[in-house]
Write a structure and sequence with these properties.
2 domains, OB fold (Dihydrolipoamide Acetyltransferase, E2P), 5-stranded mixed barrel, 26% strand
Length: 151
Amino acid sequence: MGRSQETFGKKEVRNKRAKKRKEKEQKRALKKSEGKKNNFDNMIAYVDEFGMITSSPPDPGTKQEVDADSIELDIAKNRRETDSDPLRKGIVTYFNDSKGYGFIRDIESNQRIFVHVSNLIDRVEENSMVVYETGKGIKGTTAMNVRLLKE
């Protein structure tokens, strides 16, 4: 007589699967007998004015009306208030005459702003106080119409 092709490991796996199947059927039968029904009302969650999740709906008496036009949807990262004077003051921190570019450190916002020789009105050097306007350049904000500050 030949040996059985079913090894101990295969028998063990088959028995575990059968046991798991029976346990699952028992759980399903227990849930049915308890009669718990899942309905939509048990699944709803509400968020209160503080951002906390609750099971009770919000009180309609505490509702506030908000004007949709007063909501700002897009705010720039470094947005400044609109100034009546577009001129800004800064100090030239670096300028290379041979390459024709440099950087200005803004006095108010402490930002580094690129400046090209084509945007200069007066000749500038490092540590010079300048007045300039900002504009959109190829790679970002660029100083335009740069001239020395004469006080």
